[in-house]
Amino acid sequence: MSIDEYEAIRLADLEGLYHEHAAEKMGVSRQTFGRIVEVARGKIARVLVEGLALRIEGGEIVMAEQRTFKCQQCQHMWSVPFGTGRPDNCPECKSKNICRAEGERGVGKSGQGCRRNPCSRSQ
Ligand SMILES: [Zn+2]
Protein backbone atom coordinates (compact mmCIF):
# COMPACT_ATOMS: atom_id res chain seq x y z
CA MET A 1 0.00 0.00 0.00
CA SER A 2 1.41 3.34 -0.87
CA ILE A 3 1.78 6.18 1.50
CA ASP A 4 -0.88 8.09 -0.39
CA GLU A 5 -3.34 5.28 0.07
CA TYR A 6 -2.51 4.99 3.71
CA GLU A 7 -2.93 8.70 4.22
CA ALA A 8 -6.18 8.76 2.31
CA ILE A 9 -7.65 6.02 4.47
CA ARG A 10 -6.42 7.71 7.56
CA LEU A 11 -8.03 10.99 6.67
CA ALA A 12 -11.27 9.60 5.31
CA ASP A 13 -11.96 6.70 7.62
CA LEU A 14 -10.09 7.42 10.78
CA GLU A 15 -10.45 11.14 11.01
CA GLY A 16 -13.74 11.06 9.19
CA LEU A 17 -13.00 14.01 6.97
CA TYR A 18 -15.14 14.71 3.97
CA HIS A 19 -13.44 13.71 0.78
CA GLU A 20 -13.29 17.32 -0.27
CA HIS A 21 -11.48 18.33 2.83
CA ALA A 22 -9.21 15.34 2.88
CA ALA A 23 -8.35 15.78 -0.78
CA GLU A 24 -7.43 19.34 -0.05
CA LYS A 25 -5.16 18.25 2.74
CA MET A 26 -3.39 15.86 0.44
CA GLY A 27 -3.23 18.33 -2.39
CA VAL A 28 -5.15 16.19 -4.86
CA SER A 29 -8.49 16.57 -6.54
CA ARG A 30 -11.58 15.07 -4.97
CA GLN A 31 -11.85 12.56 -7.78
CA THR A 32 -8.28 11.48 -7.32
CA PHE A 33 -8.81 11.22 -3.63
CA GLY A 34 -11.88 9.09 -4.11
CA ARG A 35 -9.94 6.79 -6.39
CA ILE A 36 -7.07 6.47 -3.94
CA VAL A 37 -9.47 5.61 -1.14
CA GLU A 38 -11.14 2.97 -3.28
CA VAL A 39 -7.85 1.34 -4.14
CA ALA A 40 -6.74 1.47 -0.55
CA ARG A 41 -9.96 -0.07 0.74
CA GLY A 42 -9.63 -2.81 -1.81
CA LYS A 43 -6.18 -3.60 -0.53
CA ILE A 44 -7.26 -3.53 3.08
CA ALA A 45 -10.13 -5.83 2.31
CA ARG A 46 -7.77 -8.27 0.69
CA VAL A 47 -5.45 -8.14 3.63
CA LEU A 48 -8.31 -8.93 5.98
CA VAL A 49 -9.71 -11.71 3.88
CA GLU A 50 -6.51 -13.34 2.82
CA GLY A 51 -4.54 -12.65 5.97
CA LEU A 52 -1.78 -10.89 4.13
CA ALA A 53 0.62 -8.55 5.77
CA LEU A 54 0.01 -4.91 5.11
CA ARG A 55 3.04 -2.99 4.10
CA ILE A 56 3.23 0.71 3.67
CA GLU A 57 5.92 1.93 1.44
CA GLY A 58 7.36 4.99 -0.16
CA GLY A 59 6.41 8.55 0.44
CA GLU A 60 7.38 10.72 3.31
CA ILE A 61 6.51 8.45 6.17
CA VAL A 62 9.95 8.88 7.58
CA MET A 63 8.72 9.92 10.96
CA ALA A 64 8.93 6.59 12.68
CA GLU A 65 11.71 5.10 10.65
CA GLN A 66 14.54 6.85 12.37
CA ARG A 67 15.16 7.07 16.02
CA THR A 68 17.30 9.83 17.33
CA PHE A 69 19.55 9.38 20.30
CA LYS A 70 21.49 11.90 22.21
CA CYS A 71 24.63 11.50 24.22
CA GLN A 72 24.50 13.15 27.62
CA GLN A 73 28.23 13.15 27.78
CA CYS A 74 29.23 15.02 24.64
CA GLN A 75 25.77 16.12 23.40
CA HIS A 76 26.30 14.27 20.16
CA MET A 77 23.06 13.41 18.40
CA TRP A 78 22.60 10.69 15.84
CA SER A 79 19.88 8.61 14.28
CA VAL A 80 19.54 4.94 13.73
CA PRO A 81 17.09 3.28 11.40
CA PHE A 82 14.05 1.94 13.15
CA GLY A 83 14.29 -1.71 14.00
CA THR A 84 18.02 -1.90 14.51
CA GLY A 85 17.68 -1.69 18.23
CA ARG A 86 18.96 0.74 20.73
CA PRO A 87 22.65 1.59 20.42
CA ASP A 88 24.77 0.66 23.40
CA ASN A 89 26.87 3.73 23.49
CA CYS A 90 27.69 6.98 21.85
CA PRO A 91 29.52 6.58 18.54
CA GLU A 92 31.56 9.65 19.36
CA CYS A 93 32.77 9.24 22.90
CA LYS A 94 31.58 5.71 23.68
CA SER A 95 29.69 6.92 26.69
CA LYS A 96 26.79 4.75 27.76
CA ASN A 97 25.00 7.77 29.03
CA ILE A 98 22.72 8.15 26.05
CA CYS A 99 19.03 8.58 25.72
CA ARG A 100 16.32 8.77 23.21
CA ALA A 101 15.75 12.23 21.76
CA GLU A 102 12.10 12.51 20.84
CA GLY A 103 12.52 14.15 17.49
CA GLU A 104 14.28 17.41 16.96
CA ARG A 105 11.19 19.37 17.89
CA GLY A 106 10.98 18.09 21.43
CA VAL A 107 14.59 18.86 22.07
CA GLY A 108 15.14 22.23 23.56
CA LYS A 109 11.90 22.42 25.44
CA SER A 110 13.51 20.92 28.46
CA GLY A 111 16.91 22.19 27.50
CA GLN A 112 18.34 18.72 27.58
CA GLY A 113 16.09 16.83 25.25
CA CYS A 114 15.83 14.04 27.77
CA ARG A 115 13.20 13.85 30.40
CA ARG A 116 14.12 12.43 33.76
CA ASN A 117 16.53 9.76 32.75
CA PRO A 118 14.82 7.14 30.67
CA CYS A 119 18.12 5.69 29.59
CA SER A 120 19.64 4.86 32.90
CA ARG A 121 17.63 1.68 32.91
CA SER A 122 20.64 -0.56 32.77
CA GLN A 123 20.67 -3.36 30.31
ZN1 LIG B 1 29.13 11.06 23.34
Structure notes:
The chain is an alpha+beta fold and 123 residues long. It has two domains: 3-50; 66-105, Rubrerythrin, domain 2 (Single Sheet), CATH 2.20.28. It is built from four helices and three strands; from the N terminus they run H-H-H-E-E-E-H. The protein has helices at 3-14, 19-26, 30-50, 103-106, and strands at 66-71, 77-81, 98-101. A three-stranded antiparallel β-sheet has the order 2-1-3. Strand 1 (66-71) and strand 2 form a beta hairpin. Helix 1 runs antiparallel to helix 2 (19-26). The chain is elongated and about 55 Å long. Mean pLDDT is 78; it is low at 104-113. Bound molecules: zinc ion. Zinc ion binds next to loops.
List keywords for this structure.
123 residues, alpha+beta, Rubrerythrin, domain 2, 4 helices, binds zinc ion
Please sum up the structure shown.
The chain has four helices and three strands; from the N terminus they run αααβββα.
H and E string = HHHEEEH
Low-confidence region ranges? 104-113
Structural class category: alpha+beta
Number of helices: 4
Broad shape: elongated
Count of individual beta strands = 3
Query: Major sheet: size, sense and barrel closure?
Result: 3 strands, antiparallel
Q: How large is the radius of gyration?
A: 20 Å
Could you give the distance between the termini?
37 Å
Order of strands in the sheet with most strands: 2-1-3
What is the mean predicted local confidence, pLDDT?
78
Number of domains: 2
- Estimate the helix proportion, in percent: 25-40%
Ligand list = zinc ion
* Strand coverage percent: 5-15%
| Quaternary organization | single chain
